[in-house]
Amino acid sequence: MRVLVLAEKKKIAENFVKAFLEKGITAKYLRLSKVMLVSKKDKTEIKLVGSNIDNFDAVFLQARSSLAPFVEPLLEELTNQGFYVNSKKGSYYLSDNEPYTFVSLAINNVKTPKTLTSGSGKNIERVSKNISYPLLVKSFVGKKAQQAIIANNGKELNSFVKSIKSDIEGFMLREYIDEPVISCIVVGDEVFSVKRKTKDQVVVPIDKGEYYKLPDSDKENVLNATKVIGLDIAKVDLVKGRVISIEPNINLKNFNKICSADIESRIVDFYLSKENEIKRKSIFSELKDIRSIFSKTIFGRFFK
Predict the structure, then answer these.
(1) Total-model pTM
(2) Reported CATH class of domain 179-270
């Protein structure tokens, strides 16, 4: 197996590359900005600065969901060419659109805090009657959150709406649960969890958290959430068993120490569990190349 580790910075990728190499897997880091998609007529090629995509069988991707406009076309092309990637095509568009994420989770029976949306500030008071205070309220332009507050009652909600002077395309109202946040790293079917207390509605950093054994019902909910979004490896936050965020980019700083685990190594093991699938795709890709070569010769009619 040959794995290309794509990340925004070398510092993010170093420990992952090291973990792959320690288990005898060829791995190379490449900065995400050094990847290009070149389209010629009806064909798109993946170009790497200083390397060749054909030198790899699989990709381990670490990038913020906000990079979806670039990452998604890349994911689609990698998938079309038979590469295994830890994020499925569509997963970045979905995780970068918070209101759509919660709609998708809810219709697939993932437990989340009750969430409602409104396209207009004029309707927000009427919409808010269908949900209990306190509320986490966010205003959006497109899929980007502009402002957010915790409203304890209708008066605070209306004051927030009236304070917004710029053009807003919509609002999201979500039940706010003032309980500790359980931050989880998901690797396939494994979940590593850290409990983070809240103080004055602010969640303490990961390094102030403590190991938490996730109940089976919560684990099932977390895994269901990652499958709905299309992520094999992800960070998921829970409150009282309900998913409040999901992100394809993971930061393992402090997680290994708190959970007494080597999560990078578990990621490598997960990739090894995909080895047969990766080999089958590699063989299929080689056959497609052979077909493409022969189709341009006098034998081409046999490959139509």
Answers:
(1) 0.86
(2) alpha beta
